[in-house]
Design a protein that fits this description.
There is one protein chain. This protein has a domain at 23-82. A hairpin with a 6-residue loop joins strand 3 (37-40) and strand 4 (47-50). The chain is an alpha+beta fold. The chain contains 1 helix and 4 strands. The longest helix has 19 residues, at 64-82. A two-stranded antiparallel sheet has the order 1-2. 22% of the residues lie in helices and 14% in strands.
Length: 88
């Protein structure tokens, strides 16, 4: 099957066509929050303030493909479970 049109991908009006899925993604750079935040210390059971000093922004770039593939698999599996495509 060859799909023609503006954006041929694996879903047409919500139905699977068997073609590969086309997914567009965008990433927002995560940021450190410099404002003191009240949090729970699990070791002592007390509330404490967490203060982040400096910039500790993680870089998602090297892991982006793995993250997108994992989330796409998670979402498609969830939809299949909700749709009753798997037996209990």
């Amino acid at each position: 099957m060859i799909l023609k049109g503006e954006s041929p991908d694996g879903a047409i009006a919500g139905l699977a066509s068997g073609a590969p899925l086309k997914i567009n993604i965008a990433f927002k750079p995560p940021s450190s929050i410099a404002k003191p935040q009240l949090t729970l210390n699990l070791e002592t059971g007390t509330e404490e303030y967490l203060v982040v000093k400096g910039r500790h922004d993680p870089v998602i770039g090297p892991r982006a493909v793995a993250v997108v593939e994992a989330m796409a698999t998670f979402i498609l599996t969830d939809l299949a479970l909700r749709g009753g495509y798997f037996d209990d």
